[in-house]
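Worked example

This section walks through a single chain of length 139. The input is the sequence exactly as stored; nothing has been trimmed or padded.
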Amino acid sequence: MKVKGYLEKVRELNQTVNPLFQYLGVIVEHISPEDTVLRLPLRYDFTQGAGVIAGGILASIADEAMAHVVLANLKEGQTTATIEMNIRYLRPIKEGKISAVARIIKKGRQIITATAEVQDEQKSLIAYAGASFMVIKKE
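Given that input, the structure is written out below as tokens.
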């Protein structure tokens, strides 16, 4: 599927092009070349043994938000893959909804760098992530 077609379909409420979004319950608020906003209603089964949302859930929503802002910057015939990512967890969260807001930091021809802020419903920062994405030519 072409990038633009995918980005149109993934915005649909009952989309089927991104199984991870379906599984987690991710809601696409906004995707553009400037920024992407993904929302995730938290569920009990996202908690780990200490009773807070697992860091992997926060990392997943951050990675996906960054990947989608990168996708919005690609040309047809290109795709992307995360080649490195770091995340800093700033405070725990147990319930509610979170949003991941991603932006491009540097757009190179082969590597694109992005950041994501994971926020709670009051827009308090829960985690901060950064990643690099390789631009891949589809064959």
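What to look for: The mean pLDDT is 96.
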